[in-house]
Here is the input.
Amino acid sequence: MKKLNIILADDHPAIISGLRTLAEQLPGVDVVGHARDSTSLVEMLRRLHCDVIVTDYAMPGGRFGDGLLLLEFLQRRYPDVVVIVYTAIDNPALLDAMHKRGARAVFSKIEPPEKVAAAIRAVAEGTPPSDSRAKSPTSTAKHSREPVASGFDTLTKLEAEVVRLYVSGLTIDEIAELRHRSKQTISAQKQSAKRKLNIARDIDLIHYVKESGFATLSGATTAPAPYPPDGV
Here is the structure.
């Protein structure tokens, strides 16, 4: 088993503490640092030798972003470092996108952290880390759109159209003007769509839609037929 230097990245101290305790019990594993945002993570990577990063998906506030943006940066700048994501995200398109951007394994925070420790052990033993979610979203994304489409099928026609227009680049005010509805109504429809898709942040909504190809559905967004005003 080769020696591994590990950096843990999460903005929740309790998560860091739990992962550190588990990782330090593994033979040949040395936790060389922990970060609470992408700024401190990248600073450590510049100073320290690192073999494995265990990181949360959402760590707002860092200079290098978080989520897919951070994964893309790590894949480009540190291609030899194994990245394991430990996240509350449970969204097929986003999970698939994490793997496409270099995550070797993705684990849910509702799962025992011992699974993360097992993945670290696999890296130390020279075998690829695996997770219970890598095969499912990746394989279904390549061979079938059904899991993604079923998520969009939960949206009403108005919610789906608001999401599509928003991802195309229009602001809430612009969509409201286009649809002859109040901006409060448009904002509420966007929030309802996010809840149904189990997405918390606007940036994740954008990535989800673009990964699924939903922005190409339902025709052009430039000249849709207007809906009646609110209350009609």
Q: What stands out?
A: The chain has a mean pLDDT of 79. The chain has eleven helices and five strands. The longest helix spans residues 183-196.
